Amino acid sequence: MMSIQLFAGHGKKRGRIIVPPAYAKTVKWLPQIGDIFPNFEATTTEGPLRFFDWAEGHWSFLFSHPAAFTPVCTTEMIALVAAKEDFAQRNVKLLGISGSSVKDQQAWHDDISDKFGFEIEFPTIDDQDGVLSAVFGMIHGKESSIWPIRKSIILDPQMRVRMIFEYPIYVGRSTDEVLRAIDSMQLIDKLDVATPADWQPGEEYLCSEKHCIVDDETFGMRLKRLTPYLALIRPDDEKPEQGN
Ligand code: BEZ
Q1: 3 has pLDDT over 50
Q2: CB of 67 sitting under 6 A from ligand 1
Q3: Distances from the Cα of 110 to the Cαs of 20, 28, 117, 118, 123, in angstroms?
Q4: Cα separation, 128 vs 28, whole angstroms
Q5: CA 8 to ligand 1 center in whole angstroms
Q6: Does the C-beta of 108 come closer than 6 Å to ligand 1?
Q7: Contact of 163 with 185, CB cutoff 8 Å
Q8: Rounded CA gap, 39 and 232, in Å?
Q9: What is the pTM of this model?
């Protein structure tokens, strides 16, 4: 691995990005589904963090939000803390990226604990200078020239980007949707299937293109073929393993 400053924040000290040599300095890289995420170092509310060391072997929910002491961000933090057991059951670690300093974020976390009784027990990065946010495509200048947008990146335990979604500053994210998407990806990884629109855990899923076309036998009586290109699979009674 080599350590270079990618595209943003030349001359700035925080947010050293460590990328594979294949990410040439002249290429404007933005995370895409399927990429191995670059390693990076950051200052967080829980001290210095080296991403691969922190994330390895777990799913990661990496999310940017604009700033401490703001209303939508406060509700998102509370919603994430309220779902901490749901994330733990799925082997998911949480890492925030904020446009506020560690000091301001810690004061805000204390205030959330005092006023609402929710303890924030995961690290959030101080990205005041916007170096990491810029590299990860979290600065959308037309939405805000100051704050990062609400961008979420879900990574699997191999550090591969599996899902990306972007919300504007005034729309809070749905924690239920994050969990649902993780359930879907973990099921897909385990059974080589697909999940339909509005799927919820425990509901029928779809055979993947591969199974649909060549192999009706795989799922036996649990498979209900609707068209040559669409077949439903009734879930097995066995609860799928989570957090693979
Ligand atoms: C909010 O989280 O509500 C917010 C964040 C940045 C600017 C304005 C509002």
Answers
A1: no
A2: yes
A3: 38, 38, 9, 9, 14
A4: 22
A5: 24
A6: no
A7: yes
A8: 39
A9: 0.88
